[in-house]
Structure formats: structure tokens, C-alpha cells
Amino acid sequence: MLAALTVLAVVMLVPFVIVVFNALKTPQEYSAEGPLAVPNGVYLEGIKDFWDRVDYGDKLLNSIIISGVVAIAGVIISVLNAYALGIGKVPGRMWLLVMVLMANMLPQESLVYPLYYLFKQVGLYDTRYSVIIVFTVIQSAFGTYLLSSVLAAFPRPLLEAARIDGASRWQVLWRIVVPISRPTIIVLLVFYFIWTWNEFLIPLVMLISNDNQTVSVALGVLQGQRLMDATMSSASALLGIIPTLVFFLIFQRTLSRGLTVGAIK
Q1: Where are the alpha helices (DSSP H) in the chain?
Q2: Tell me, which fold does domain 15-256 have in CATH?
Q3: Where are the domains of the chain?
């Protein structure tokens, strides 16, 4: 099993290694030796040219703000919804979950025009708020469905003990449910951040100003204009991957923890 997982890990890392190699090559070296050759040195002009051409610092800040706000807001809404649907006694709970799941399955292509028209009318078009609102709703729909299923199996003795001690519903939520569910909540936080970071279609439609664009939109627009050679394309891909990789590595320890670790002895 360990050998099989090692082989799988190597296979998954190969594309990333190739991107790193090509990002560090000169265009002449890429043309002469191909994409699989190890670079003869460290050539950083491709990364520097891409950074300056798209004003990558501003695009990076936009992506971090949008993805971070969506992740935090989406988790808060998911927790509140799931607490009501999974632990509370909400009439029509099953139908509400079905509606949430169906809404989460809608393709983004069908949402583009209604969202475009709506944000035009309310004056939020071409602002980061429009993308934040859209993806907070989309991500929290998935989180509501997932957390509701998890909290439906929440240890009842803990809830009953808290109520006997006089805890209110808010105290039960913030002092019992959230701390015990923290591993699952952090998993959702990581997924929300990465999913929002990689989104392209809706940010492309909603963010037309250069100052508001995200990293993924900047990459797509520049590649569509055919203004990059192979090494600069690799450099852009590398710069687009690194932030999400760092964010994932920071929280990777929590991804495998159980829901009730340390809750019941």
C-alpha cells in the first residue's frame, strides 16, 4: 500500500515539477531542449515579466481578499444553517436540504445573466462585493448540506448535558458544537478558499476592470490574448498555484481529524 501511494504521489507531482522546470528556463532553452528537460540555470525573467505585465501584486491581493472573505462568511452561514437543520427541529428539514442541494447543482452558466442583470441594477457590478456575495451563497449551500448531515449524528449526551447546565442555544452552538466540529469546519474553510480562488467564469463576467480582477482571470485574459511564451505561461501557472498550495499546507493537519476527537472519554 505504501509503495502504491508513493507511486501515485510521484505521478501527481510530475506536472508540478514540469511547470517549475519550465518557469525557470529561458525561451531559447525551452525551444532547444523541450519541456521535459532540467533547466541549466535559474532564469527568473519570465516570472518577473509576468508579474509586471499583469500587475500580479494587485491581482494576488484581490484573490486573497475575495477567497478569504468567502471562506469565512461561507463557513459562518453554513454552521448557522446546519445547526438549525441538523440539530434544531425545523419543519420541512428534508425538503429544505433537497432545495439547497438542487441549488448547489445549478451550472454557473445558467446563473451568469441573472447575476449580471441583478448586480447591474443594485450598483455592485464590477466590484469585489458581487463576487463575494455570489460565492458565499454558492459555497455555503454545499456546506449547509454537508454539515447538516454531520450534525444530525452529533453526540446527544453532550447537548443534553449542556442544557442541564443551563446553556442557551447560542452557548450550545459556540461552546459545544463549534469546538467539537472544528476539524470539519476547517476542512470546509480550506475547500471554500481553494474553490473560490480557482473560479474563473463568474469573476470574468463580474470583474471587468483591471484593478478588480483576480489571479485566475488575469491568467486567462493574458493567455487568450496570446501575449505569453511557454516559459512565461509556466511562470504564471506557478504563481497561480503557490498561494493555494501554501494555504493548503498550513491547514493540512486538520483535514484528517475526526468530528468528535476528544469529545467523549
Answers
A1: 2-23, 27-33, 45-54, 56-82, 93-104, 112-122, 128-152, 156-164, 169-172, 178-180, 182-198, 201-206, 215-224, 230-251
A2: MetI-like fold (1.10.3720)
A3: 15-256
